[in-house]
């Protein structure tokens, strides 16, 4: 996510797949052999594919009260609609919105309270939508149609209130949260954490601490580990979990992001285990294989990029390759689409 102005951070992005087409010259009288490809235009061996996303719809405009709009947390609801959150929406304005993925029509789902929601995901145990409130240090939940708003978790964890940014569920409905405390400080003052919250008791346990503002968090395709993007360090870590997911057995830096002034944001996984890493400060997403090979870069059309700052997050429809990314900037908040490299799974949908 990008932190809201009151908390202090970032914004959104976009994408869709493109394939190169070879032109063949055809004369009126005969079809000669096609010319050899121009070596200067052929992709280098192992080079990442360049993908241009397609605009689905504009969801929000910049709010006068907050001076910005920031879409986050794309997640496909049971009815097929795409739910997104507007992190910087002021009180009384839509905080959760629904986008019809066919028509692009937008409708309000939830407006209550003062939460600055930065991610959204449906629980596999109770089917409710869970939202991380970055500013309030809470995790709220509601039904898919925006009813029965309750707070599932609030308060301190080991003596410190969280800055809950992104969220991932294990198969049993337990919550794994990136605590982005320290996001506005230097990398050497690392105070972030990864926190596990029991899905039944709401008991919180710190799995990792002293991290440089963790942001994106996604389970691997087999639920044996976590991919955690470190916002303040421009890297992605892999955390291998024990058998019941209550402790980190080993951890290492898996990817380094050479982003310059841009930084790693939220992420998602597809059925092949590929990692889709969103970028704050650039409206794009980078796709990596489980072994760290850079497979693709997804960006918005060049004509759109000037008014967009960041790609915050991405969701891939489970069982399909339809992907949706949230992108924001001074032109507003948008959803772009592209074709994922593999089908979506639970770990692809929300967070």
From TrEMBL:
Any one Pfam family match given in the protein's UniProt record, by short name: SGL
Residue span, SMP-30/Gluconolactonase/LRE-like region domain: 72-326
Protein's UniProt keywords contain Transmembrane helix: no
Signal peptide segment: 1-31
UniProt KW keywords: Hydrolase, Signal
Recorded family membership: Belongs to the SMP-30/CGR1 family.
Protein name, UniProt field: SMP-30/gluconolactonase/LRE family protein
Organism, scientific name: Nocardiopsis changdeensis
């Amino acid at each position: 996510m990008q932190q809201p102005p009151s908390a202090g951070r970032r914004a959104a992005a976009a994408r869709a797949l493109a394939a190169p087409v070879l032109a063949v010259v055809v004369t009126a009288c005969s079809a000669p052999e096609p010319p050899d490809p121009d070596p200067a235009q052929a992709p280098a061996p192992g080079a990442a594919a360049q993908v241009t996303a397609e605009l689905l719809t504009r969801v929000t405009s910049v709010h006068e009260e907050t001076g910005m709009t920031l879409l986050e947390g794309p997640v496909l609801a049971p009815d097929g609609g795409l739910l997104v959150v507007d992190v910087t929406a002021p009180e009384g304005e839509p905080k959760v919105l629904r986008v019809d993925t066919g028509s692009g029509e937008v409708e309000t789902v939830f407006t209550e309270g003062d939460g600055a929601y930065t991610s959204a995901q449906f629980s596999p145990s109770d089917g409710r939508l869970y939202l991380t409130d970055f500013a309030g240090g809470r995790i709220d939940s509601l039904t898919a149609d925006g009813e029965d708003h309750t707070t599932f978790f609030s308060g301190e964890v080991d003596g410190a209130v969280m800055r809950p940014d992104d969220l991932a569920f294990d198969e049993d409905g337990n919550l794994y949260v990136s605590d982005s405390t320290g996001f506005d400080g230097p990398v050497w003052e690392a105070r972030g954490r990864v926190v596990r919250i029991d899905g039944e008791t709401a008991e919180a346990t710190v799995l990792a601490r002293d991290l440089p503002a963790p942001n994106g968090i996604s389970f691997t395709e087999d639920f044996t580990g976590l991919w955690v993007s470190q916002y303040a360090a421009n890297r992605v870590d892999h955390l291998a979990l024990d058998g019941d997911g209550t402790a980190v057995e080993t951890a290492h830096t898996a990817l380094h992001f050479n982003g310059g002034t841009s930084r790693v944001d939220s992420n998602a996984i597809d059925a092949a285990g590929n990692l889709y890493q969103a970028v704050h400060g650039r409206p794009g997403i980078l796709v990596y294989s489980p072994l760290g090979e850079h497979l693709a870069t997804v960006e918005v059309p060049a004509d759109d990029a000037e008014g967009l700052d960041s790609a915050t997050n991405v969701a891939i429809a489970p069982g399909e390759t339809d992907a949706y990314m949230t992108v924001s900037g001074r032109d507003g908040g948008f959803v772009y689409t592209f074709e994922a490299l593999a089908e979506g799974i639970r770990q692809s949908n929300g967070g």
